[in-house]
Amino acid sequence: MYNQIASNKRKSVLLIFIFIIILVGVGYAYDWFYGSAQTPYVGIIMALVISLLMTSISYFAGDKIALFASGAKKISKEDNRYIYNLVENLCIAAGLSVPKIYIIDDPAINAFATGRKPALSSIAVTRGAIEKLGNEELEGVIAHELSHVKNFDIRFMMLVAVLVGAIAILANMFYRVGFISGRDNDNNNRGGGILALVGLIFIIVSPIVAELIKLAISRKREFLADASAALLTRYPEGLARALEKIGAENRPLKRASGATAHLFIANPFGRGRVMSLFSTHPPLAERIKRLREMAR
């Protein structure tokens, strides 16, 4: 279990470095394809400025946006003592402060955590999860989300989502601006047709590559959170049974969004809407298998 956690963290850091390379590469491709001698680094500068702006918005307001988008409503201990006690007990075991607790009025079984750090985190659970899961199963789901909090996945995944958005926006913006303005003579002399074509292809393809990297990170983080939840509860079977119920029901959330899909414990769109290659979550069967192997 500890080996899996360490391995996932190393691979996730590597993927973030790839993101940074892609981001700078988009700006460089623009400079090569559309730039001039008077403004040699405008593409790279614009890429970094837009990325910084979007990252700042995500860091300080990303959790509020995610909660609003999902229709989550904040509750107090008096509103639902059962959920509050479950979260509080697991936080004591994990050494965490109790996050803000939200309920999503949706019959689907799902949950997610968000926030920029454990002290300012929030956890949201659907009405369906509360009503349909047994005590150990719901405990496993909450432990999974608290593991995202403890491992700082909540900050990490929010920033990754913003980087993906920044790359897509920059590539599209650079292409449109360049298409309108056209290339000058300096570019034709120094770039050549082949290198210019490579730059254009990179601008078009980079958002797709960035999205695939985001999905890969999301999958690794789900396996990591499953392992951490099993360590926290000392009962991997509880989370395994909850995932089985999610898979058997296969009910999408009413307010599912592609921007926040990777935050949930299971794909909020259900199975069948997207190909497995573009799913933000690993197959439930594989997650259940790994959890049960931990229990042996």
Give a concise summary:
The protein has 296 residues and is of the alpha+beta class.
What does it look like?
The chain is α+β, with helices and mostly antiparallel strands. The chain has one domain. 68% of the residues lie in helices and 6% in strands. It is built from 9 helices and 4 strands. It has helices at 2-34, 42-70, 81-94, 127-132, 135-150, 153-181, 185-233, 236-249, 284-294, and strands at residues 72-75, 100-104, 111-114, 122-126. The protein has a 4-stranded mixed β-sheet with strand order 1-2-4-3, sandwiched between helices. A hairpin with a 7-residue loop joins strand 3 (111-114) and strand 4 (122-126). The longest helix has 49 residues, at 185-233. It is elongated, with a radius of gyration of 22 Å. The model is unreliable at 187-192 (pLDDT under 50).
Fill in the keyword field for this structure:
single chain; 296 residues; alpha+beta; 68% helix; elongated
* Average pLDDT score: 81
Strand % is 5-15%
Rg over CA atoms: 22 Å
Q: What spatial order of strands do you see in the largest sheet?
A: 1-2-4-3
* Low-confidence spans: 187-192
Tell me the major beta sheet: 4 strands, mixed
Helix-and-strand structural type: alpha+beta
Count of discrete domains:
1
What is the 3D form? elongated
- H and E order: HHEHEEEHHHHHH
Q: Count of helices?
A: 9
Write down how many β-strands occur, each being a DSSP E stretch of 2 or more residues.
4
The helicity comes to 55-70%
User: What does the oligomeric state look like here?
Assistant: single chain
Distance between the termini: 12 Å
